[in-house]
Each structure stands twice: as structure tokens, then as C-alpha cells.
């Protein structure tokens, strides 16, 4: 059976965590996502694992262009330049799923993206983002940025004399973004916790949640 994954925010990244479906671990820094994926896919397939397809979504066109140019597995890995909160994105992803005879992705990775959604779209945007992801997912893996990263991002903007994030002062989900995200996943998305990993070297944890089984 074909397994599908989506990675939202595709900038280069090394992940040392294991997930249920994808095992990207023990990799050296400064590799980029496509090479990590290539190694991972080849390893998975050589062990007679199911077919795996992955789509990476990011709103940065340059990033997507680079990722496409260096894509080692265009038959399995696709990159799309989309704003995840846009209607186009939902349509595109549903079309992608239909082509593969699926209604949802087996797993959706959201590494280091929740803060940007939260800062740029506020509490409502964060809720909408997680709802949309969960609608499309059997399982979600989120790496929330801690509150100190919000403060650093705001400070960087102010130092660059670019003002501040207009919605920052209006946020109610403050101080402990991870707690708020877990609450949204349970309360609004009706997902259940599988596990929460220990902090990585940056003190970040992965929240792993899944859709409840329909009875
Ligand atoms: C901090 S980077 C993290 C990227 C990657 N997941 C990682 O862990 O290295 C955040 C990424 O999210 C992307 N991004 C922010 N808002 C987005 C949105 N609404 N839709 C799609 N991508 C978005 C940015 O362009 C950026 O590449």
C-alpha cells in the first residue's frame, strides 16, 4: 500500500527524530531535505517497505525552485509553492491525494512552522492551520517553536527597523505555545496524543498526534 506524507515548510533541515513512518535520523548537519529524503526513501524501499510518496509545500518560490532542481526522486517526491492557509493549497492537496486514490495523508510534518503561522496570522490563524492540517492527516508531527523564539523573531525585526509583527500584542496563546497547540489538537481537531518526544539539542520537542479511530 502506498504511504503518503506531506512536509509543510520545506526549508533545509536535518531531523534526528524517528517517526512512525519516516526515519530521518543520525544525519549530519547541512545536508538538505532532498538528499535526506533520497537516503531515507532508498533505505525504506530496500527494506521492502511500502511505496512512499512525499509532497513538500512552502510559500517561498526560490526555495521550491531549488528543491525541484535538486530533486533526486521526482517520481516520488513533489514540491509545490503554496501558502498552506490559501484555498488553492487545499484544492491542490486534495487533487494530489485523489491522483493517488487517497483521502488523507498518512503523516503530515510541521517542523518549525507554527510560530510563523502564529505571528503572521494570529491565534485564529494558528487554529485554522492546525485544523486544516488535521483534516488532511491521519497523523501529525509538530515541532512548535518555544515562546523565546517569538521574542527573538520580534527583536530581530525591530532591530532591523522593520517594526514588529502587528498581531503579536493581540495573541492570547502566549508563553507556552506547545501547551496551546496540544490543546487545539485535542479540543478543536479531536486528535489524540501518541507521544511527545524528549527535547532535541535545541530543546525542541515533537508532538505526535493521530486521528481517533472511527467506531
Ligand atoms: C523556520 S522555516 C522551517 C522550515 C523547515 N520545516 C525546517 O524545519 O527547517 C519556516 C518555513 O515555513 C514557510 N512558511 C511560513 N508560512 C507558510 C505558509 N503559510 N505556507 C507555507 N509555508 C510557509 C517559510 O517560507 C519557511 O520556509
UniProtKB/TrEMBL annotation:
Keywords: Methyltransferase, S-adenosyl-L-methionine, Transferase
Signal sequence region: none
GO molecular function: O-methyltransferase activity; RNA methyltransferase activity
Keyword Transport included in the entry's annotation: no
Transmembrane segments: none
GO CC annotation: cytoplasm
CDD domains: AdoMet_MTases
Keyword Transmembrane helix set for record: no
Domain Bin3-type SAM: start-end pairs: 1-214
EC nos: 2.1.1.-
GO annotation terms (biological process): methylation; negative regulation of pre-miRNA processing
Classification via InterPro entries: Bin3-like (IPR039772), Bin3_C (IPR010675), BIN3_SAM-bd_dom (IPR024160), SAM-dependent_MTases_sf (IPR029063)
UniProt similarity note: Belongs to the methyltransferase superfamily.
Name this polypeptide is given: RNA methyltransferase
Name of the gene: 105619754
Amino acid at each position: 500500500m502506498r504511504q503518503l506524507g506531506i512536509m509543510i515548510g520545506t526549508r533545509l533541515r536535518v531531523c534526528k527524530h524517528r517517526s512512525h513512518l519516516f526515519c530521518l535520523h543520525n544525519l549530519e548537519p547541512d545536508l538538505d531535505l532532498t538528499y535526506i529524503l533520497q537516503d531515507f526513501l532508498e533505505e525504506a524501499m530496500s527494506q521492502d517497505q511500502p511505496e512512499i510518496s512525499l509532497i513538500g509545500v512552502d510559500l517561498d518560490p526560490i526555495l521550491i525552485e531549488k528543491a525541484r532542481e535538486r530533486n533526486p526522486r521526482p517520481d516520488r517526491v513533489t514540491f509545490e509553492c503554496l501558502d498552506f492557509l490559501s484555498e488553492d493549497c487545499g484544492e491542490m492537496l486534495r487533487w494530489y491525494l485523489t491522483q493517488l486514490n487517497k483521502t488523507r495523508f498518512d503523516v503530515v510534518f510541521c517542523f518549525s512552522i507554527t510560530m510563523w503561522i502564529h505571528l503572521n496570522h494570529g491565534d485564529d490563524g494558528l487554529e485554522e492551520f492546525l485544523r486544516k492540517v488535521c483534516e488532511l492527516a491521519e497523523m501529525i508531527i509538530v515541532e512548535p517553536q518555544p515562546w523565546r523564539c517569538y521574542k527573538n523573531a520580534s527583536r530581530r525585526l525591530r532591530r532591523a527597523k522593520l517594526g514588529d509583527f502587528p498581531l503579536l500584542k493581540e495573541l492570547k496563546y502566549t508563553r507556552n505555545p506547545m501547551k496551546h497547540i496540544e490543546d487545539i489538537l485535542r479540543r478543536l481537531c479531536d486528535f489524540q496524543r501518541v507521544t511527545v518526544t524528549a527535547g532535541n539539542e535545541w530543546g525542541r520537542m515533537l508532538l505526535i498526534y493521530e486521528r481517533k479511530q472511527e467506531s
